[in-house]
């Protein structure tokens, strides 16, 4: 199969491309950076270098493909993130329509069934709705759990204060995922040309924040590492003091509230509720320790 992968050589796109190439597929990787061209070609993939804001470029990259993996860039500025994410989705949607591709797998998120109360995920909700209106294309929305890699952002807090935490309680259930497990799910879906429109969850493990603190703490030699529930105000203050723009801090605080009250996990819990990925929290803890 000829498959186009967006996301350059990111945490999901690179292992996805490697998996597809190992299975003998003809892979083109879309990247906005010309510096990535050589690394892409080392994987034995073709490089399509251009702006993800350029619909004509995207259309050309998708044309002739049997299937396309689409994701929006993870960093869309310090303000208007949901609006910017939605706008990026519009360009991808137009390229999908103009290219004539019939099979598309989108990286979405747990909580994307909700229009609000989920922070940046609201942009993915808008894009899923947009794609659902495109006729003649079979979509799979891969709704990923909370990325393990988000815990890397807590390393300064652990080092400076000896704690970790967020604005949700230590006993909630969190559905989490490793990027390689996302890549495994996408590999299955994107090579199935007979699939009809559906939602599929990519979840590696379901644990409480208290368990996360204990497992990660043990991996870094701090087995008593506590999980602290911050107020919204404390979380915003901490993120802005660390240099995040206020809009971003408020957006992630909104996402934390959605996790804490079960709003984000509701659809997953009532329709799926299973962690089928291979990389459990203890395995990720080894990566966390190396990063620490």
From TrEMBL:
<feature type="domain" description="NmrA-like">
    <location>
        <begin position="2"/>
        <end position="252"/>
    </location>
</feature>
<dbReference type="InterPro" id="IPR036291">
    <property type="entry name" value="NAD(P)-bd_dom_sf"/>
</dbReference>
<dbReference type="Pfam" id="PF05368">
    <property type="entry name" value="NmrA"/>
</dbReference>
<dbReference type="InterPro" id="IPR008030">
    <property type="entry name" value="NmrA-like"/>
</dbReference>
<dbReference type="InterPro" id="IPR051604">
    <property type="entry name" value="Ergot_Alk_Oxidoreductase"/>
</dbReference>
<protein>
    <submittedName>
        <fullName>NAD-dependent epimerase/dehydratase family protein</fullName>
    </submittedName>
</protein>
